[in-house]
C-alpha cells in the first residue's frame, strides 16, 4: 500500500494565540510549530500497520513555505519514508486540497490520509475537498482503520453514534480520535535517518483562493469568576437561577 | 438567488440544532434580500416538515431516493448540488456536525465555491461576503471574506439563536440522480451511542476530570446530570484511562461543545480542554486547588473537595427543582 499523509504545520496546542499588524496576521513570536495532533495519529496508525508486517510506503506531504520542512522532517523521523513539500503559502483550504490532489495524481497512491481538522483554521475541509477534486470516496473522522488484504475496515463518527464501513482503495480518509491510541515519538535513530530521507520540493499548480482571512479577534475576557463558599452551595444554585438565569 | 439550508433529519425528526440553522439561513437570506429554502434527505412526515416554515424557510425539497438511506458523502454532495443548482442557490449552509463536515467541503469544490467553516454569526457584510468564524480551536475568531459566486458555510453549534417567524412552507418532492460509484464505501453497520444525551446535544453538561480519582466515583456526577436533565462529559485523561467512554471526551482533540451551562468538576482547565468548552454560556468550576487555571475562565467557582461539594450541591439542586 502506498499512502499519502497530509501533514499540517500548526502552532503547538499550548500556544497563547496573539495577532499583529492590526489583527490581520498571526503573531508567531515564541510559537513552536508541530505536526497537527490528528496527523500524528494518522501517521502513527500507518506505521503500526507497517510494523505488523504489511507492506506500507508512506509519503508525507505539506503545502507550505520552506519553514515547514522542519515539520516534514519530524514526520520522517517518526518513520515516514519520504516527503514532498509543495512550495506555496497555504492560501486557503481549496488551494491546499488542489495541490494535494495534484501530488496524488502524479504518484501511484492507494490512499490519502489527512487529520480530522487542523488546529489553526479548524475547517475539517481539506479531506473532502481533495476527494472531490479527484473524484474519490471520502470518510471523515475515522476512529478505526484496519487493513485486511485489499479491504479496509473503518469506523466513522456520525451524529449519535458511529458507522462501520468497508472500503477498497483508492479513497480519502481523515483521522479522528481513536485512529491510533498514542502518537509515536521519534527516537534518536529515526531522527538520524530522517536527515538522509528524500524530501522533494514541487511547485504549486494554479488555483485561486476562494476565501481570505481579513481580521482576527480574541474571545472577550470573562469577568472575574464569582466565588461561592463551599459551605453554602445553595448560593450557587441561587446565582445560576437568578443571576445567570440558566436553570 | 436563494439560501439553501441542509436540514438533516434523524429518523424523520429534526433536532434543535436544525431550527438554529434554519433561523440562521433565514436571517442570512434577509440580509441578502433572497429567500431561505431547505433540503432534507429521507422520509419526514408533513407536520414535521411544516415546522421548518416556523423558522422562516419558504420551501423544502424532500429527497426520497431509497438508495440514500445510508449516508455517503459523495452521494449526498451530488444530491444537494442538484437542488442548489436547480434553484440558483448562491449560499448553502450546513451544521458544523459530522455530516456537514463531510459534505460541505465536497460541495464547495463541486460548485467552485469558497467555504467558511464554523461560522458563529450571520454575514456582517454581503458585498464583500464577510462572516465571522471560529479559529485556533476556539482560542480566537476570524473574519473571512468569501470571494466566489457560490458560498458554503457551516454553522458552529449553539452559536445562533432560534427565531420563530411563523409562516407557511411549500413542500416538494425531489428526485435526484445518484452518480455511479457514490456508494463505493460499503456500510456494514450503524452503532448508536447508548440511549443517553449526546454531549453535543446537551443544554447542560456535567463534566468531570482526573480529580475524581477513579471510575467508581462517577455516581454523583451521573446523579447531578439526572437531576438537571443534563449530559455527562469528561477530560481527555479520563477517557484515555478508560474511566469513561470515548464519546464523552471534550476539548481540542475531543468534541467541541457549547452548552448553556458547563459544570467542570476536578478538571484543571488545561488550554486544550478549554479550547473545546469555552464557548459555553456559563461555566462553573469545582476544584480543590484555588490556583487551577479553570477558575480564570469560569463564571462561578467553588474551591472545595468534589467528594463533599457535589453531594451537597445535588441536594440543593434537588430541592430547587422540587420547589420550582
Ligand atoms: C495535543 C494535546 C491535545 C489534548 N487535547 C485534550 C482535549 O481535547 N481535552 C482534554 O481534556 N485534554 C486534552 N489534553 C490534555 C490536557 O493538556 C490536560 O492534560 C488534561 O485536560 C487534564 O485533565 P484533568 O483536568 O482531568 O486532569 P488534571 O490536570 O490531573 O487535573 C485534575 C484536577 O482535579 C483537581 N482535584 C483533585 N482532587 C480533587 C477533588 N477531590 N475535588 C475537586 N478537584 C480535585 C486538581 O486540583 C486538578 O486541578 C491534550 C493534550 C495535548 C498535548
Ligand atoms: N498546508 C497543509 N499541508 C498539508 N496538509 C494539510 C495542510 N493544511 C491542512 N492539511 C491537512 O488537512 C487536514 C484538515 O485540515 P483543515 O481542513 O484545515 O481542518 C489536516 O489535519 C491536515 O492533515
Describe the protein.
Chain A has 247 residues and is α/β, with parallel strands linked by helices. Chain A has a single domain, classed as HUPs (Rossmann fold). Helices cover 27% and strands 32% of the residues of chain A. Chain A has helices spanning 37-51, 69-78, 93-105, 126-134, 188-196, 234-243; strands spanning 2-6, 9-11, 19-20, 25-26, 33-35, 57-64, 82-87, 111-115, 138-148, 151-158, 161-168, 171-175, 199-202, 211-217, 226-227. In chain A, strands 11-10-9-12-8-1-6-7-13 form a nine-stranded mixed sheet, with helices on both faces. In chain A, α2 (69-78) packs across α5 and α3 (93-105) crosses α4. The N and C termini of chain A lie far apart (55 Å). By secondary structure, chain B is α/β, with parallel strands linked by helices. Chain B has two domains: 2-173, HUPs (Rossmann fold); 204-323, Rossmann fold, CATH 3.40.50.1220. Chain B is built from nine helices and 16 strands. In chain B, the strands form three sheets. A seven-stranded parallel sheet of chain B has the order 5-9-4-1-2-3-10. In chain B, strands 13-12-14-15-16 form a five-stranded parallel sheet. In chain B, α5 (219-228) links the parallel β12 (204-208) and β13. The longest helix of chain B has 18 residues, at 306-323. Chain B is elongated, with a radius of gyration of 21 Å. Chain B starts with a strand and ends with a helix.
Characteristic terms for this protein:
heterodimer; A: 247 residues; alpha/beta; two-stranded antiparallel ribbon; 6 helices; 15 strands; globular; B: 324 residues; Rossmann fold; 2 domains; seven-stranded parallel β-sheet; five-stranded parallel β-sheet; 29% helix; 27% strand; binds flavin-adenine dinucleotide; binds adenosine monophosphate
**Shape field of chain A:** globular
| Chains forming the largest contact | A-B, 81 and 94 residues
Number of helices of chain B: 9
Number of domains as seen in the coordinates of chain B: 2
Bound molecules: flavin-adenine dinucleotide, adenosine monophosphate
What's the helical proportion of residues of chain B?
Answer: 25-40%
What is the count of distinct domains of chain A?
Answer: 1
Amino acid at each position: 500500500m502506498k499512502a499519502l499523509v497530509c501533514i499540517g504545520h500548526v502552532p503547538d496546542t499550548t500556544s497563547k494565540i496573539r495577532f499583529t499588524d492590526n489583527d490581520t496576521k498571526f503573531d508567531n513570536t515564541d510559537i513552536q510549530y508541530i505536526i497537527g495532533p490528528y496527523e500524528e495519529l494518522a501517521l502513527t496508525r500507518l506505521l503500526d500497520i507497517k510494523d505488523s508486517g504489511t507492506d506500507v510506503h508512506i509519503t508525507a506531504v505539506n503545502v507550505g513555505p520552506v519553514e515547514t520542512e522542519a515539520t516534514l522532517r519530524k514526520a520522517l523521523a517518526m518513520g515516514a519514508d519520504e516527503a514532498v513539500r509543495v512550495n506555496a503559502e497555504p492560501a486557503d483550504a481549496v488551494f491546499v486540497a488542489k495541490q494535494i490532489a495534484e501530488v496524488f495524481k502524479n504518484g501511484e497512491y492507494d490512499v490519502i490520509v489527512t487529520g480530522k481538522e487542523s488546529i489553526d483554521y479548524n475547517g475539517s475541509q481539506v479531506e473532502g475537498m481533495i476527494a472531490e477534486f479527484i473524484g474519490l470516496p471520502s470518510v471523515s473522522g475515522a476512529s478505526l482503520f484496519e487493513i485486511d488484504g485489499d479491504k479496509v475496515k473503518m469506523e466513522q463518527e456520525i451524529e449519535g453514534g458511529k458507522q462501520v464501513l468497508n472500503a477498497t482503495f483508492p479513497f480519502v480518509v481523515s483521522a479522528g480520535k481513536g485512529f491510533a491510541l498514542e502518537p509515536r515519538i521519534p527516537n534518536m535513530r529515526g531522527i538520524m535517518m530522517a536527515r538522509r530521507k528524500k524530501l522533494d520540493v514541487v511547485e504549486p499548480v494554479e488555483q485561486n483562493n476562494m476565501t481570505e482571512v481579513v481580521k482576527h479577534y480574541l474571545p472577550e475576557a470573562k469577568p472575574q469568576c464569582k466565588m461561592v463558599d463551599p459551605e453554602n452551595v445553595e448560593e450557587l444554585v441561587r446565582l445560576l437561577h437568578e443571576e445567570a438565569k440558566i436553570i | 438567488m436563494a439560501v439553501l439550508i441542509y436540514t438533516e433529519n434523524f429518523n424523520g425528526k429534526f433536532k434543535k440544532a436544525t431550527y438554529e440553522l434554519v433561523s440562521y439561513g433565514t436571517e442570512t437570506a434577509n440580509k441578502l434580500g433572497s429567500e431561505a429554502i431547505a433540503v432534507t434527505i429521507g422520509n419526514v412526515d408533513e407536520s414535521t416538515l411544516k415546522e421548518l416554515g416556523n423558522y422562516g424557510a419558504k420551501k423544502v425539497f424532500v429527497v426520497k431516493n431509497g438508495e440514500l438511506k445510508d449516508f455517503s458523502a459523495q452521494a449526498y454532495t451530488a444530491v444537494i448540488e442538484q437542488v442548489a443548482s436547480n434553484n440558483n442557490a448562491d449560499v448553502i449552509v450546513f451544521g458544523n456536525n459530522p455530516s456537514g463536515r463531510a459534505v460541505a467541503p465536497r460541495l464547495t469544490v463541486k460548485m467552485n465555491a469558497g467555504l467558511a467553516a464554523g461560522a458563529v454569526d450571520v454575514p456582517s457584510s454581503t458585498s464583500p461576503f464577510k462572516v465571522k468564524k471560529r479559529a485556533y480551536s476556539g482560542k480566537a475568531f476570524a473574519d473571512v471574506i468569501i470571494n466566489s459566486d457560490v458560498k458554503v458555510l457551516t454553522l458552529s453549534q449553539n452559536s445562533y439563536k432560534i427565531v420563530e417567524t411563523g409562516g407557511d412552507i411549500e413542500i416538494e418532492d425531489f428526485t435526484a440522480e445518484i452518480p455511479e460509484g457514490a456508494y463505493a464505501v460499503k456500510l456494514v453497520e450503524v452503532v448508536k451511542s447508548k440511549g443517553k444525551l449526546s454531549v453535543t446535544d446537551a443544554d447542560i453538561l456535567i463534566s468531570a476530570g482526573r480529580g475524581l480519582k477513579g471510575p467508581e466515583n462517577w455516581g454523583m456526577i451521573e446523579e447531578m446530570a439526572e437531576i438537571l436533565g443534563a449530559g455527562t462529559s469528561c477530560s481527555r485523561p479520563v477517557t484515555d484511562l478508560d474511566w469513561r467512554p470515548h464519546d464523552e471526551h471534550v476539548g481540542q482533540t475531543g468534541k467541541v461543545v457549547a452548552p448553556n451551562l458547563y459544570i467542570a468538576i476536578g478538571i484543571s482547565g488545561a488550554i486544550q480542554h478549554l479550547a473545546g468548552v469555552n464557548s459555553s454560556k456559563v461555566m462553573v468550576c469545582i476544584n480543590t486547588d484555588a490556583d487551577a487555571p479553570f477558575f480564570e475562565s469560569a463564571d462561578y467557582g467553588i474551591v472545595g473537595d468534589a467528594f463533599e461539594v457535589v453531594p451537597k450541591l445535588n441536594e440543593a439542586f434537588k430541592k430547587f427543582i422540587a420547589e420550582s
